[in-house]
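re: ur msg from earlier - yeah i can do the flavin-adenine dinucleotide complex, just paste it... oh wait u already did. ok heres what im feeding in:
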Amino acid sequence: MASAIIIGAGPAGISAGLYLHRGLPATDIRILTKGAGTGSLAQAGLIENYYGLEAPISGAELERRGRAGAERLGLTIAEREVFGLRLNDKVDGFLVETDKDTMEADVVIMATGAAREKPLGLPGLEELTGHGISYCAICDAFFYRGKPVGVLGAGDYALHELGVLLPIAGEVSLFTNGAPAPAGVPTSVTVYTEPLQALTPAPDTTPHRLAAVELTSGQTVPLAGLFIALGTAGSTILARKAGALLTDDGRSVRVDEHMATNIPGLFAAGDSIGGLLQVAKAVYEGAEAGLAAVRYLRQKSRPQSST
Ligand SMILES: Cc1cc2nc3c(=O)[nH]c(=O)nc-3n(C[C@H](O)[C@H](O)[C@H](O)COP(=O)(O)OP(=O)(O)OC[C@H]3O[C@@H](n4cnc5c(N)ncnc54)[C@H](O)[C@@H]3O)c2cc1C
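and the outut:
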């Protein structure tokens, strides 16, 4: 049986699930979410510009209805926070790493909503991205073998990134940027809870490379690499992990008109691909991604003709 994982249970993810289910009912479809109320939709007070609403309803109520309708049709919605996405070369599919387990799928549709937190306004961030600043431990840890690195974040995602770095990098630190230290930080990790003030480049490198982070107290911590893991891994981070391309500004996943990324079997829809951030667009793109996934799975299951 073909399997599909949809990351996100907002309008885009649910819509993708509905169309995939209709097109290939036998597919094992799992829609993963951080939980009810975790996407943009739940933050919308009243929605009145979406088709079919006789009276305005809250975003939370629209989300509840969307999920209930999908479950009524037999779709499975599971609470899982996704940390990682990789190609599974053995079976020509994907491995989706979550806070509870690692799941396999033939296709993945990313519908995690708009781009997640960046430490906005942190001097040096843009200039040093790709030169010591990384958003993906599994992609870049290798370049920091034996070197001092840090993770910026204070949630489960940050803990996951620490776990990837610890066996590879030298000294590993956690910077919570003013948040309390999370439970479960490995004892070998040094935790700094003070906010960061700036990222300091090495003076003699072209292009500049990260040399240290500066805390608000003025203390400087030398670092070869800093991995940003604030909040949750959104679609752009997951796309990078799988090797998929982003838009030129790096804020959205790059897709074609059928919501396909450059990686066969990997799709994205909704706020995660940018443009008009509205429910109507997310629902349309989810439908398009679901139908494109149906075509992909049909093609994949066709016997290859021998030449
Ligand atoms: C305050 C506010 C008001 C708005 N008002 C309107 C309005 O009036 N009309 C309108 O049309 N639109 C409105 N919008 C926009 C609308 O809510 C979004 O365009 C729409 O919800 C996008 O749908 P989505 O499915 O792409 O993402 P979202 O609704 O953001 O859903 C994202 C899903 O991804 C999940 N997720 C994210 N990361 C992970 C992870 N790592 N692992 C597992 N799950 C993950 C979340 O848990 C969630 O289920 C408003 C938005 C806001 C913030």
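cool cool. DSSP finds seven helices and 18 strands in the chain. ping me if u need the other ligands too
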